[in-house]
Amino acid sequence: MKIKNILVSFAIAFVFWILLNNSFDPLLLGIGAGLSLILTLIFCSRCDIFSELKLTPQAFIFTIIYLFVFLFELIKSNLDVARRVITPSLPINPGIVEVKTKLKSRMGRMILANSITLTPGTLTIDIQDDTLYIHWIDVKSEDINEATEQIVRKFEKYLEKIYG
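Above: the chain sequence. Below: its structure as tokens.
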């Protein structure tokens, strides 16, 4: 068993329990801790999903920064897509672009792909090694380096600090 994976899984499950119950009643906290521990031991005794996660103060700070960057990009892309819907005369140039990532960890790549997909106007179609295929509502460049710079780098520089 990997202690790091169990501790992180337990912490996530327990925080989720607290958020769902919206209570700090000692009985509920005890039940939540017990259930979180049991579920973690059953489902995560052999998992290695969090093995690439860095548990350092620097990683924690970069996680907070990443969340703010993601929220900013989410709002910005929502406004862009809404503007395109409201103004149908705006030209769009949909297409699939290939981008590269420097991220080595599976978890980091997954979070990058999900972040890209969650921002309107882009959708991660496939991941193969260090290459992501993205459907982009308005392809500004088919050059791999330029597309990577516009889509990936804003997230990647923070995820590198968190996952390596």
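The first helix runs from residue 3 to 21.
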